[in-house]
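Q: I'm writing up a methods section and want to include an example of the input and output format. Could you take the sequence below and give the corresponding predicted structure tokens, formatted cleanly so I can copy it straight into the document?
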Amino acid sequence: MSRVRLAARALRLALNKAHADPTADYDAASGDYDTFFSPVMGKHSIAALDTVPVTPGDTVVELACGTGHLTEEIVRRLNGTGAVYAVDKSPGMLQVAKDKVLPLAHGAPGLHVELSEGDMDSFIQSRPSGSADLVVVGWAICYTKPTRLLAQIERVLRPGGRVVVIETRADAHRALTERLERIFADDPSLLTGLIRVTLPKDAATVARWFIKAGLSVDIQRDGAQTIPAHTPEDVVEWVQRSGAAAGFKTAVDSGREQLVLDRIAAGLGELLARDGVLDLQHTFVQVTGTKQSDSPAARRRGVAEEASAV
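A: Here is the clean output for your methods example:
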């Protein structure tokens, strides 16, 4: 019966458009992100970037650049010539990125670097068609409508341009998410906002998004990384300070946030006592694609442009 009450609560929140905003969580995690998330998951981000060429002189667009872990590497690979246009919605994360990346561009007149605060959907819509050699989306496509974003990316890419997406999978941290769902089911009043994310089931799901947006798929793979948290307290700290719990602050009754965290830790403690280990997997997908020189999407745009010019 408690799940019925939770479903009713979620419906009311949806009707009232009470949506959780992950920005506050990323702001809170910005000072710790490169201590917690980047050392654990950053190697997978770099591995994704390794699947595409980054050549001096290229124009690269990065959506949701976070603390600039990938931005920094992109700038290094451009080796002093080219352009990077990056955006992130979190002021805290963006400031860390600026402190890290902008000094690398100093003294390189052939390299143009812009890091902007804003929404990635609006940002990509503002970019000129056929203007980018590479678009990178790290751990963020879940916060938008994926096929719509990818269609805009296809538009912005030059023919032969590449796109790389790495994203958390829907089954990541399963024991933790199941515990949180149980807490909300027991007391639906704890839930004050809905976390709206589109986490993919697997890499094949993301590949279908690419194809629907008119992009070819070059590489698709699923991966998993055990997070370095071995006690309930470690797990709670990691998800808070790594940004993995983005949206939590505005999804939970602010006056009872600590209560929820304590209940999560208690539930994980029961799991640890039962199994003797907390083995939480951060599962993820990585997909790389290419804009074809004569893609169906490009042909449709060409027809529309001709019609509007008549």
